Amino acid sequence: MYKGFNKIFWGYLFLTFKINLGPIPILPAFVSWIIIFNGINIILSEKDNENFRRAKALVFFQIFLGLIEMAIGIFQLQIVQDRIFLYMTPVGLVLNLIVYYFILEGSIDFILEMDSYFYSSLNSTLKNIIIFNVIFILIITGALAFPHDGILIFGMILIVIMQIVFIYWVRKVRNRFEVKILEE
CB–CB of 107/173 below 8 Å? Predict the structure, then answer.
């Protein structure tokens, strides 16, 4: 599980901090989702979990959305980009929120078997991440409906903070499994 959570960590890190070379992404979103997909596969190969199986299906769909987004960006299809952005952004955000939920719930299932104190910490983290992501989705949807740069910037700052919290949390879970490996 250590390797699986490590891949999920790196996938979300690359997803949060995108690097582009002009219009061409050096590490496009779909590659980050593939890394996350591989991490979930590793975890599922070690121990089956319904939440991780659900996350895997949604991540597969996110890979598809990432490919579409990259193709639109590369070919500079501005008319298509404006129309699709209105629909893809909220859909992608909601899917990302659901993936967060399934990864967190699946991880809590594993942690509950190991450490009850760590479990309560993760449970409160799950609630906070979901609340902030719902607020973010509402802000972005509002900003798309009623364009205002200040709202959009605030929403983007909020999502970066939440992605960093989630990345930190995944790293913490990964380290917990590293400690378990060293104890065995």
Answer: yes
Condensed to tens digits (0 to 9), the pLDDT of residues 26-54 reads 788 889 999 999 999 999 998 889 999 99
What is the tens place of the pLDDT at every residue in 54-85? 999 999 999 988 887 777 766 666 555 555 55
pTM of the model: 0.76
Residue whose structure tokens are 């409906």 = 145
Three-state SS string across the chain, please? CHHHHHHHHHHHHHHHCCCEECCEECCCHHHHHHHHHHHHHHHHHHCCCHHHHHHHHHHHHHHHHHHHHHHHHHCCCHHHHHHHHHHHHHHHHHHHHHHHHHHHHHHHHHHHHHCHHHHHHHHHHHHHHHHHHHHHHHHHHHHHHCCCHHHHHHHHHHHHHHHHHHHHHHHHHHHHHHHHHHHC
